[in-house]
Amino acid sequence: MTRHSKNCTAGTVYTYHERQRDTKSSGYGSKSARFGKDSIKNFDCCCLTLQPCRNPIVTPEGFLYDKEAILEFIIQQKKQIARKLKEYGKQINKANEELHELAKAELETKKQKLISHVEAPSDKNASGKDDKSICNMNNGKGKELPSFWVPALTPAAAPTKVEKPDEKVRCPMSGRPIKLKDFIDVKFTPINDRDSKTALISKEARYVCAVTNDVLGNSVPCAVLKTSGSVVTMECVEKLIKKDMLDPINGKKMTDKDILPLQRGSSGYSASGHTLEGKKYGPSVMA
Question: Which family does it belong to (predicted)?
């Protein structure tokens, strides 16, 4: 009966199709979906603006940015770090002042105790009788309780403690420290399709490999040559470049560190890298 379970309603077996249908209608269980190509950033788009780069530069980890966007990001991060450092400095100065005041008050208390022991004060007044008045201003209590209507012992909330900020500007994708000198200029080779009317941004296939002229895309792994900044396919790297370890564009010698695999995808709205599946975990029903 399970072979035609989708159309059978009299079977004694709770089939997989029926279980999935009931789970979907009840709202229980985990749900998964596959994202389309519109949810994934193109390989030649900036990781910040998600738009095609006008002046592309790449990090040593292979993340592509538009030069203007990443410079603006670095400037904003430095301003934010400077503001946090200023707040942290004010907090440290205030804490030092409080410690100084506490030490001064403790020293003054010790002096008063020493003076009171030396003078041996008496609780009797000028008439020789004990002063047992209930007034709060007698016997030096005026300084302890300056105003009886002011709640001197009311608890106060402590100010929010500011942690010491990280002074390094970090990559928004990898989280590693970045510097402007570490970026590498990227040179894409435009496709030669003899279509001068259509803008380059409107084309689906915009660039090709600088060596083999293969069309580049999200489904084609590619790399940036650090010596020339050209973009080539990983197939070209494995079959041609790694044989002699020479840059085919300018003939310079290369090492493995000069080959930077270009990261694909990595859109914050769907998934990281080239992962096309999303999963949402929900409550499960115990049998």
Answer: Belongs to the NOSIP family.
Distance from C-alpha of 39 to C-alpha of 243, rounded to nearest angstrom: 37
CA nearest to 68, candidates 50, 51, 56: 56
> CA 56, CA 60: separation in Å to the nearest integer?
13
d(CA 228, CA 208): 16
Q: Which two tokens stand for residue 119?
A: 């003078």
Q: What pLDDT, in 10s, does the model give residues 162-199?
A: 888 888 999 998 889 998 889 999 999 988 877 777 77
Q: Find the helix or strand (DSSP H, E) in which 21 lies.
A: helix 16-26
For the segment 63-119, what is each residue's pLDDT rounded down to a tens digit? 999 999 999 999 999 999 999 999 999 999 998 998 898 888 888 888 888 887 776
Which residues, 6+ apart, have CB-to-CB distance to 170 below 8 Å? 77, 176, 177, 178
Token reading at 37: 């190509």
- What is the reported pTM? 0.65
